Amino acid sequence: MDDLVTVRLILHPMSPGEAEQVVAGEPDSSARWAPGYPTEGDVAAARRFLSVCASTGYPQPFGAYEIRRREDGHAIGGLGFHGSPDHNGSVTIGYGLVPSAHGKGYASEALRTLLAFARARGITCVQGDTDHDNIASQHVMSAVGMQLVAEDERLKHYKITWTDATATTDPSS
To answer: What is the band of 1 on the pLDDT scale with cuts at 50, 70, 90?
Structure first.
């Protein structure tokens, strides 16, 4: 599968071998990691990706992606799908960046691209969640058109739904 390219980023579909390197925290000689990469979140996502690979096979295009800066090729975080679409065409996403990449609009740029990619492949609904105190992530999901649809004691849940040519963020959809 080809990389997804934005103005400033490359969203690189992670291979099982690359995921194993992230889990081990040991890049091979070709990997270029920014300081602080991988984060605990990246390791958890790589483990989840490897689990999906082991149980149902290689899930791309609905797998994990490494976020790389185009200017230097360094990995600065990750994003992706928690698994293949369900029977209704719904997927759950997650994302994260190393602290030095925060506040630059990279997460919104990456997530906006991933949403367009999902929609172009027939996905009808994308869901995500964040901790109550993660205001930055809440802003990212809102900025890309996702709407807060529920809260529990730990998380805020966001969603965007597409019907035909329009995106809806109606909590009842």
So the answer is: confident
